[in-house]
Amino acid sequence: MADTRNADLTFGANDYIVYAAAANTVAPSAFADPATGWTNLGWITTEGGLLKLEEETKDIEAAGSLEPIRTLMTKSTKSLQATFLEGLNPFVRALYDNVPIANLEPTTDVAAYDLPDKPSDLRYAFIFDTMDGSKRMRLYMPNGKVVERGDEQPQTTDAMPVQMMFKFYRGASSAAVKRSIKYGSVDVSAFFPA
């Protein structure tokens, strides 16, 4: 068996960029810069994003067997948590406050709006780009929304972080999450023998 260990296959993100657009906006081709319609959500904390894949199953048991005779997949949830540093970024603020982005357009230099009494089901497409030199990973989610929000705490000792948990659903014509990987100059041919 060949030793395929390669330190160049480690991945340490040195940048993390998040984009948002209208729900089901088509993803740009792999690693192309997002075009018109996509908005950069600004600086993210050094922790980047925390992708969670949660699955639930149910075992079916039957007489005459000491182990389950079948296992059903009952739930598969994909979510991502990130902390944004630009607390006044209009798109970040709209996501956190659960209001349409149009509500944050200022008249003179002021935007004023009511926070919804009943949560709105505002959906967007998202791109999460992670970079490590020439190596890249991209997550594209065509249909997502914010489902949890961290506490808001303006303070004098630090920037006000805006923490949100996103949940992702199937898009109009694509899976809930699509991952693209660019290996850069790393040779991975040993993993795919002829």
List the helices and strands and how they pair.
Elements: E1 15-22, E2 39-40, E3 44-60, E4 70-84, H1 90-97, E5 124-132, E6 135-149, E7 162-169, E8 178-182
Antiparallel strand pairs: 1-2, 1-5, 3-4, 4-7, 5-6, 6-7, 6-8
Describe the structure.
This protein has 194 residues and is mainly beta. It has 1 helix and 8 strands. Strands 1, 2, 3, 4, 5, 6, 7 and 8 form an 8-stranded antiparallel beta sheet that branches. A hairpin with a 2-residue loop joins strand 5 (124-132) and strand 6 (135-149). It is globular and about 70 Å long. The mean pLDDT is 92.
Overall strand count: 8
Q: Taking Cα atoms only, what radius of gyration do you get, to the nearest Å?
A: 21 Å
- Quaternary structure annotation: single chain
**Shape descriptor:** globular
List unreliable stretches of 5+ residues. Answer: none
Strand and helix order? EEEEHEEEE
Q: What is the percentage of strand-forming residues?
A: 35-45%
Strand count, sense and barrel status of the largest sheet are: 8 strands, antiparallel
Binned, the helix content reads under 10%
**SS field, number of helical segments:** 1
Mean pLDDT across the residues is 92
Which terms would index this structure?
194 residues, mainly beta, eight-stranded antiparallel beta sheet, 1 helix, 8 strands
